[in-house]
Amino acid sequence: MNCIVCVTSVPDTASVIKIGPEAKSIDETGIKWIVSPYDEYALEEALQLTEAKGGEVTAITYGPARAEAALRDCLARGAHKAVHVLGGEATLGDSFTIAKVLAKAIEGRDYDLVLCGFKGVGTDNGQVGPMLAELLGIPHVANVTKLEVGDGSLRAGRDVEGGQEQISSPLPALLTCQKGLNEPRYAALKGIMAAKRKPVDKVEVASLGIDEGADPFYVRRSLELPPPKSGGTIIQGEDDPAGAAAQLVNLLRTEAKAI
Amino acid sequence: MAGILVFIEQRDSEIRKASLQALSEAKRHADGDVAAVLVGSGVTDQATGLGAWGAAKVFVADDPKLALYSAEGYCEALAKAAELAAPTAVFFAGTAMGRDLGPRFAARLGVGALADVIGLERDGDRFVARRPVYSGKAFATADTGGHDPQVITLRPNVFAAEEGGGSAEVVPVEGLSLNIRAVVEELVDTGGGELDVAEADIIVSGGRGLKGPENFALIRDLAKAVGGAVGASRAAVDAGWIAHKHQVGQTGKVVSPSLYIAAGISGAIQHLAGMSSSKVIVAVNKDPDAPIFKIADYGIVGDLFQVLPAMTEEAKKLAG
């Protein structure tokens, strides 16, 4: 059971986002980069599967030099190998180019499963997984919250509006992972020390035959912060909660026309 | 601009509202014809009705193998329809199905996609989409470069569905091979008829201030009285009080309903990111300094255990 886990680095979810000077990207000053939270479910699932069935976990990222930290984190948690495709600054948010790069980096490797987070908590596209599956010519199940892997096949559950789809698929397949699938482990000190000695295979994106940014499929024109909210109507309801509630519901009906 | 093709989602032959919203948005932008694609089993009868929502043509892939959704089967049907229609853009509603199918379809056609779009304009033959990034902490505008068709996934409940049009010509989509590997074997109803936060126009959310899972009853009662869905903060989900599908925020669902009521939620940055684009925000919290009040349009500083039941009663009175 060999698993490939695709990870991306995103700003820590507690980060305050500021807009950079050209109003097209964020100001990265002081940003702490983490493995995108949904990718942690993908990694954890791969680790549990290989612990139970043998085989190796290979973590792959496509990103600038700082993205190596994400791979070290994966190695520290137990990934066996790491591949760093260097680049990605020109293709931020360009899911299709990212999928093409990952497909090139994965082709020729021996795998049963490719696992991704269901979206990167940053550009928030949620497109790379299904695109990558299509390019690799394998089936996919997106947004997985339940998984059983058997001999040559899998059964997965994914939440849809009002229900859960139960899906079966042969291997190899690609999964995008959602919260609820597992509880990601933390890296132990021993793992962190061991990760420092594990090699990270560096690949220049150009060596995959991709001229990144030359023919983009997603062009960001601008980036802005949400408009600031003006002061709201706040009712003091400690003494007369029922009166406050009546006043609020009346405002929602007559002023906000929201109910 | 030539035509726009809109994927119409149905379950049990019931057409999703979010798909009609996408169809209406297509109609607002198209100079040429708007066509729809309907995929399923026994769905041909539904097709002509789409004319009333602005579709001039409806491509129908009707096959027992397509009774339940599958990314591969639906993708093949849609790709065939796109071959027939040669559209400049293909629209999807950003439902569980649309978010799954859109990117697979785009990759099959060798193009990118604009996902989770909340605003759409045209610049010549290019669509310029406004979309939240960093889970709503910022907003980007973007286009698909020089590539057609422009695959665009629209967030549900942001664009209005407007009836208008005539009758639609039905075009069968035939000759599909339908070699489906990942098969949906079963669709289990887990909602019990509950409205999903991603589709809801009104959301009532509860957080740590509820103090325990049993008190989500207060949230459910108010949600029922105002016709809304039940949401939750990460703290409530991580405590095991309610299932993750209810979670609103940066690692949950990013929502923009017309009314968002947050009770017992202090407003961590990750939660605010997920709901701050709601049209009207209401906060109920006993802490007057809770960050949620800074973005609230209306609020009550008070005890939610007293305020929520009173709001529920008032809302019931309005409903008569």
Main sheet makeup of chain B: 7 strands, parallel
**Proportion of strand residues of chain A:** 25-35%
Shape designation of chain B: elongated
- The helix count of chain A comes to 6
DSSP helix fraction of chain B: 25-40%
- Derived from helix and strand composition plus strand pairing, the structural class of chain B reads alpha/beta
Strand order of the largest sheet of chain B: 7-11-6-1-4-5-12
The largest sheet of chain A is:
9 strands, mixed
Strand order of the largest sheet of chain A: 9-8-7-10-6-1-4-5-11
Order of helices and strands of chain A: EEEHEHEHEHEEEEHEEEH
Radius of gyration of chain B: 21 Å
Which stretches of chain A of 5+ consecutive residues score pLDDT under 50?
none
- SSE topology string of chain B: EEEHEHEHEHEEEEEEEEHEHEHEHEH
Binned, the helix content of chain A reads 25-40%
What's this entry about, in short?
Chain A is an alpha/beta fold and 259 residues long.
Provide tags for this entry:
heterodimer, A: 259 residues, alpha/beta, 9-stranded mixed beta sheet, two-stranded antiparallel sheet, 6 helices, B: 320 residues, 7-stranded parallel beta sheet, 28% helix, elongated
Structural write-up:
The complex is a heterodimer of chains A (259) and B (320). With 259 residues, chain A is of the alpha/beta class. Chain A is built from six helices and 13 strands. Chain A has a nine-stranded mixed beta sheet with strand order 9-8-7-10-6-1-4-5-11, with helices on both faces. Chain B is an alpha/beta fold. Chain B contains nine helices and 18 strands. In chain B, strand 2 and strand 3 form a beta hairpin. The model of chain B has no long low-confidence stretch (mean pLDDT 94). Strand 9 of chain A pairs antiparallel with strand 13 of chain B, so a sheet runs across the interface.
